[in-house]
Amino acid sequence: MAGPSQRLTELGLTLPPVASPAGAYLPAVRDGELVWSAGQLPLVDGRLLETGLVGDAVTAERAATLARVAALNALAAVAAQAPGGLDGVLRIVKVVGFVASAPGFTAQPGVVNGASELFVEVFGDAGRHARSAVGVAALPLGAPVEIEIVVRVAAG
């Protein structure tokens, strides 16, 4: 069976460089066999792809695509802490998705599915995870979505 890095390549994706923290925190922290990512935005080459509230300026479908980008950034952050990089990530344990939501918008789970589906595509059954999808009034830089993950990595 192909490893996560090969599956990522088959999907036509590559891990981006780990985004530099915009404050007094680390992109990811490892403690034993668990790695926690900081919240990751849908940045590409340091640029936020879109701003606005989901259910208003940003459609739920577009936000799900942005959640996928943020999830790829989260994978890059945790892979930098895993022995063997992405192939050292053994399981996605937990995903938390924050969705900047217009009043009355209640489809946060569908938006966060963009991230969840990427993890299953890359890790198969080991990509299935516990999850929270939370609607919020605003996110940093006006981002529509933010994704954070907890993963189990190989010992070493």
Task: Please explain how this structure is put together.
The chain has three helices and seven strands. The protein is α+β, with helices and mostly antiparallel strands and 156 residues long. It has one domain: RutC-like (60s Ribosomal Protein L30, Chain: A), CATH 3.30.1330. Helix 2 crosses helix 3. The two termini are 22 Å apart.
Give a short account of the largest sheet: 5 strands, mixed
Summarize the helix and strand pattern as letters: HEEEEHEHEE
Number of strands: 7
CATH class: Alpha Beta
Counting DSSP H or I runs of 4 or more residues, the number of helices is: 3
> Structural class, from helix and strand content?
alpha+beta
At the third CATH level, what is the topology name? 60s Ribosomal Protein L30, Chain: A
Shape: globular
Short description:
The protein is an alpha+beta fold. Helices cover 28% and strands 26% of the residues. It has one domain (4-15, 32-153): RutC-like (60s Ribosomal Protein L30, Chain: A), CATH 3.30.1330.
Label this structure with key terms.
alpha+beta, 60s Ribosomal Protein L30, Chain: A, five-stranded mixed sheet, 7 strands
Secondary structure elements and pairings:
Elements (H helix, E strand, L loop, with lengths): L3 H7 L17 E4 L2 E4 L5 E2 L2 E2 L11 H20 L9 E12 L7 H16 L6 E7 L8 E9 L3
Parallel strand pairs: 5-6
Antiparallel strand pairs: 1-2, 2-7, 3-4, 5-7
